[in-house]
Amino acid sequence: MQLNTDSIRMTLMQQIIRQYISKSTWEKADFLSGEGRLHIEEEELEITCLFADIVSFTRISENLKPKAVIARLNIFFEPAAAAVYANEGDIDKFMGDAFLAIFKDPDQAVQAAIEIQKERGAPKGLRLRIGINTGKVIRGNVGGDLRKDNTIIGDVVNTASRIESHSGAGKILISEDTAKKLKKKYRLSGPLTIEAKGKQLPITVRWLQSGKSTGKSRKKKY
């Protein structure tokens, strides 16, 4: 009886923990545990990062009780996470009113972004802005033996965050590096350059629009 109770408890604990870590980390841990290994090795990957945050959420939530803040965040994050996973992506982390999702395929990242921005369940006046970037990163361990995260690290992630900060409410802004790797035809703006905080060189980006492929290119700084 004790053995059965311990087994049920372990299964329940695994189901709880699985909700609080990324799918990528869970799958790695599952594989390594089968081989009797405890350490997740670092690896270099080429991925597409999708950064999103809720516009002006800090100001809007100032007068809300903490429980109401959580409820309002989840109105956005639950359908957003569903769109990410439906397009074979993974939520790397939630950060207050923002989240970072990663994809192996840039087309799936863009499709997820489109689906997220089409979500109509959000409270009136609240919108997400999204930035997307593609490139090589390291999936590595941050922390120590007592507590660590297995997460995505690299300039590609930082650049995606900077691009997102230049996006607009309900908009999707993608890097030129992502645009070059798209296989499907999307209607994109011409190339624009943005001056991003902490970056020595301007970043070339494009607005994602509805419909098919692009028209004439144009250059702009803002």
Write the layout of secondary structure elements.
Layout: H1 2-18, H2 23-34, E1 43-54, H3 57-60, H4 66-86, E2 90-95, E3 98-103, H5 106-118, E4 128-143, E5 148-153, H6 155-166, E6 172-175, H7 176-181, E7 187-188, E8 192-194, E9 203-209
Strand content: 25-35%
Distance between the termini: 68 Å
Kindly provide the name of the CATH class of the domain at 40-172. Alpha Beta
The percentage helix is: 25-40%
- Overall shape: it is globular
Main features:
alpha+beta, globular, Alpha-Beta Plaits, nine-stranded mixed beta sheet, disordered C terminus, 7 helices
Question: Your description of this structure?
Answer:
- The chain is of the alpha+beta class.
- It has a domain at 40-172: Alpha-Beta Plaits (2-Layer Sandwich), CATH 3.30.70.1230.
- The chain has helices at 2-18, 23-34, 57-60, 66-86, 106-118, 155-166, 176-181; strands spanning 43-54, 90-95, 98-103, 128-143, 148-153, 172-175, 187-188, 192-194, 203-209.
- Helix 4 packs across helix 5.
- The radius of gyration is 19 Å and the shape is globular.
- The relative contact order is 0.14.
Outline:
With 222 residues, the protein is of the alpha+beta class. Helix content is 38%, strand content 28%. Strands 1, 2, 3, 4, 5, 6, 7, 8 and 9 form a 9-stranded mixed sheet that branches.
